[in-house]
UniProtKB/TrEMBL annotation:
Limits of the Membrane insertase YidC/Oxa/ALB C-terminal domain: 2-181
TM ranges: 111-129
Lineage: Eukaryota, Metazoa, Chordata, Craniata, Vertebrata
Membrane topology: Multi-pass membrane protein
Name by which UniProt lists this protein: Mitochondrial inner membrane protein COX18
Amino acid sequence: LENLQPEIKKLAERLRYEVSVRGKQVGWSEKVARFHFKKNLRRIITELYVRDNCHPFKATLVAWVQLPMWVCVSLALRNCSVGAAGPEVQEQFSAGGALWFTDLTAPDSTWILPVSLGLVNLLIVEIFASPKMKVSRLQKFVTNFFRVVSVVMIPVAATVPSSMALYWLSSSCVGLSHNLLLRSPTFRRLCRIPRTSSDSATPY
């Protein structure tokens, strides 16, 4: 997507000129000319996405699987912790913890898990927010929204059973490791990920 931006910009300038010329020939108003420009630009961009097999929707496909799974596993852990799955399961959870969170059915009174979760999530948001392409107003809003969500998750994680907080932290750590791995120039070369203008030789 990033590598397509210069080509899209060049084609948009050419299209703007062609629409301007055509508009003068047939007497289009500024509103009609703008409509034809946007309509044709959308078509051109879609053709480029198809050509390079990089439609932005593909980037959201993982979330459509990951989010429902995250919710279902969280609810399952809560049910196990409160005894909804049976008293014997709850008993195993109450004695199945480790380190300072030995009781997975109780919230983490030390707040280590919740604060760690908030910090890891904020780190993921900042990695995504690091400048790549020109950032739109919507992208800025989404970034700030997820920053707020990351902070709000701290008190939420402090009130739920430790089993849920531990799962959320583990999930976020895996997500962070994926993001850091995809920044590695060596890994990107191995996976044949195309170079972009914003790629850094020292991404960390």
